[in-house]
Description:
The structure holds 2 protein chains of 2 kinds. By secondary structure, chain A is an alpha+beta fold. In chain A, about 45% of the residues are buried. Chain A folds into 2 domains: about 50-155, 3-layer Sandwich (Rieske Iron-sulfur Protein); about 180-255 and about 285-415, Alpha-Beta Complex (Naphthalene 1,2-dioxygenase Alpha Subunit, Chain A, domain 1), CATH 3.90.380.10. Chain A has 10 helices and 23 strands. By secondary structure, chain B is α+β, with helices and mostly antiparallel strands. Chain B has a single domain (about 5-140), classed as Nuclear Transport Factor 2, Chain: A (Roll), CATH 3.10.450.50. In chain B, about 25% of the residues lie in helices and about 45% in strands. Chain B has helices at about 5-20, 40-45, 60-70; strands at about 30-40, 55, 75-85, 85-90, 95-110, 115-130, 130-140, 145. In chain B, strands 1, 2, 3, 4, 5, 6 and 7 form a 7-stranded mixed sheet that branches. The interface of A and B includes residues 198 and 363 of A.
Amino acid sequence: MDRLSGTTAGQARDRTWPRSLTQVPYWAFQDEAVYRAEQERLFHGPYWSYLCLEAELAKPGDFCATFIGEQPVLVTRDVDGEVYAFENRCAHRGALIAMADHGHARDFTCVYHAWTYNLQGDLTAVAFAEGIGGKGGMPPEFCMAKHGPRKLRLAVVHGLVFGSLSNEVPDIEEYLGEEILDRIDRVLGGRRPVVLGRFTQMLPNNWKLYVENVKDSYHASILHLFFTTFGINRLSQRGGIIVDSSGGHHVSYSAIDRSAAASTEYSEQRIRSDSEYRLADPSLLEGFSEVGDDITLQILSVFPGFVLQQIQNSVAVRQILPRSVERTKLNWTYLGFESDTEEQRLVRLKQANLVGPAGYVSMEDGGIGGFVQRGIAGASGEYATVQMGGESAASSESRVTEASVRGFWKAYRGAMGYDLADSPPDDTRPGRHRRARVSRAGREDA
Amino acid sequence: MDNSVAIGRAQARYVRCIDDGSLDDWPGFFTEDCRYRVTTADNHRRGLPAGLIWADTKGMLHDRVSALREANIYEPHSYRHMLGQPAILAESGGEVESETSFLVLRITGGGPTDVFASGRYVDRYVVRDGEALLRERVVVCDSSEIDTLLALPL
């Protein structure tokens, strides 16, 4: 634990960040130095990153090879039944200790020089440590206890395993806060998840564009036309946005209004009579109350890169991993629960069509980040504007707001240590509607 | 007719439909009672049941096509499927189990040709009067990673 020194990086370049939360500078998605500083300050800093599910470590000896940002990490369950996590990097020369994503092991032996680690990440054997025939070998003062991968701080929240490389990170309860914890509990509390499938989507954009997208409840009914095109009337939905006090975590949720549904059969409401299109097999959307309440959608994010999703009966976790300035790895793990009936399991498999890389209501999100990444090329001095719903990063009953997007940037700019500055008013910025014509007579400004 | 000839013909028409024809015809390669799933080799090996695309009725295949046409938004692109020879693994009555390797190139807009997916079709065909229809197709992609998104079926 002593080697988890926390934030050591200096301030991220000589950049300043706009004081108003409604402005997001495009260089944040483009700059290599920013990307490097994020690895230090966010992913190695005093924040909790999602690692894997406890359900993926069912038996002693089970392990997952996962990541905090770019850093490879091993999460294990030892014979004592406890979960451990340490860097997936041999203390000798830095090779990966384990290469499989998921597996089962009694211990780990690095393939390069056969240094061996137990399931808690302690170095237990060094090949030829004594040399051969009294010659060679490690120096007598070499101490295996002083050589090993760094061990992470760990926290398990309703079966979600979080890790941190910083000793300064607050306890997970304090980090998440009561409202976020309650909403994780709502979906996962008291149930044992079962992995139904794992899929990875490579996104052609900076990781923060995907985080913004997750937090953006404003775009959902505009970009994702599946529900409206097929006339699937989701009735008058009540819902809201929760943004925690740090700004970094959020929940967006909506629920069926049963008083509105009561006047007509819900199944008749599902098909809008004036719609030209309808589903040939509407059983796709015949679900059940997920946890006994009326909430049919709950998207929850934890700073910096974790998402827990309930879309009808499609429950999944998403891990957002930066891979380069313009490349992001998005890991989807689709979940059921041990308590599911066969019919409920079938509903989950069908409704998984809504999400993931081929999802009816999510495939657009795979492309849109790339459209922004390409759109902002050459505009590093410009800003995105996120004014919908005001300027604050507060919870609200309206989902026509960008409050949780602003919340992310509030947490982000604080974590990155940027100085805040008032940005110049629009009319003093260059390049607005000025033309020049060049003719044979010479240049004339118009 | 030999089953492998019937399956070879059906598969040649199947990929032509996706690559060069009309997606509307795609569900026609399946029997009325059918299953179609796109997954990865890792999920397949572990017996994990979820799919990137998961359908257990022909109606769900029609819905995929109409959603792509009418609802979903994605950059225009096309595929080029290259198929291996079908390996016939089991034959009984009119039912044939086969596996066929595929390579799918994706051409995005006017842009590059990329290798999008490789893998195998794990199929259960019904062959009647020389015509082969899919009762079940599991598309097992070799890689666990999907680049950007999966819109058109494989």
